Every structure is written in C-alpha cells, then in structure tokens.
C-alpha cells in the first residue's frame, strides 16, 4: 500500500470542505446518498433550495478524488512500455494539447497523459475563479 499512497507518485490530497460551511453540508449529503445504494439519478439530483453551481462543484471534486484513488491503484502496471498510447480501445486515441508545452495534439504514453490530465484537473479545481471556496462568491 505504500506505493499506492506515495504522495509524490500517485496520491493527490483530497480537496477538503471546511466543516460548518454550506459546501461541507452538501458534501455530507452527497456522500450519504452515494453510499446508501439508492438510485444514482436521485442521488445527484439538486436538493431543494441549493445552488446548482455549488452542488456540481461538490460532485466534481468528489469524482476527481475517487478517480485519483482508482488511478493510484493501477498506475504501477501502466508504464510507458506497457501503455505506450493513451487510448479508449482500438478505435480511439487521446492526444494531449495544453497550448503551453503541447501546442498541437500530441500522442503520449498513457501514464504521461494521465499525469498531465490529473495535474490540469487539479489546477481547475483549485482555481478560485472556476471553483470558489466561499459559497455565494461570484464566478467569472
């Protein structure tokens, strides 16, 4: 398990919601509904009186955290040698473009693609103009 939770290699800390805040309460409600075995459509339905952007933000962060943990369990088996292409089966190849280092869609080994993707998602989640941490703060 040490390799799975090596923070420098695979594990990224969860973005936490401050206890006592509205987002924390939404997070608790989302966790309870997802862990109860209920209908997923009902589990992600916006609760009455809640802000849609806050509800979506809570689910995006939770989804990122779960995907990150899943990826952490398989990344040691997917190396540049064993996974030379980031693909979605034989018909689809994913290429990376970030308009900084990779100005054109570029074929990359799956682990490199995933690391860039997870870094990019983490930047978006931590960007206050995209995901403000204060409820009610306007989004640009």
Automatic annotation (TrEMBL):
Database matches in Gene3D superfamilies: MOB kinase activator (1.20.140.30)
SUPFAM superfamilies (alphabetical): Mob1/phocein (SSF101152)
Keywords, ordered alphabetically: Kinase, Metal-binding, Transferase, Zinc
Cited InterPro entries: MOB_kinase_act_fam, MOB_kinase_act_sf
Binding locations of Zn(2+): 78, 83
Listed transmembrane segments: none
Top-level taxon: Eukaryota
Gene Ontology molecular function: kinase activity
SMART domains given in the database record: Mob1_phocein (SM01388)
Keyword Manganese: no
Protein name: MOB3B kinase
Species of origin: Eubucco bourcierii
Upper taxonomic lineage: Eukaryota, Metazoa, Chordata, Craniata, Vertebrata
Gene from which the chain derives: Mob3b
């Amino acid at each position: 398990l040490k390799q799975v939770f090596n923070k420098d290699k695979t594990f990224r800390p969860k973005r936490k919601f401050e206890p006592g805040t509205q987002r924390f309460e939404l997070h608790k409600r989302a966790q309870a509904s997802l862990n109860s075995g209920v209908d997923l459509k009902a589990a992600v339905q916006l609760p009455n009186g809640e802000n849609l952007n806050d509800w979506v933000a809570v689910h995006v962060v939770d989804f990122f955290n779960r995907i990150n943990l899943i990826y952490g369990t398989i990344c040691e088996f997917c190396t540049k040698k064993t996974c030379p292409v980031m693909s979605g089966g034989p018909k689809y190849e994913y290429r990376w473009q970030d308009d900084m280092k990779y100005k054109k869609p570029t074929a990359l080994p799956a682990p490199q693609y995933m690391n860039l993707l997870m870094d990019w998602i983490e930047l978006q989640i931590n960007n206050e103009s995209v995901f403000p941490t204060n409820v009610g703060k306007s989004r640009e």
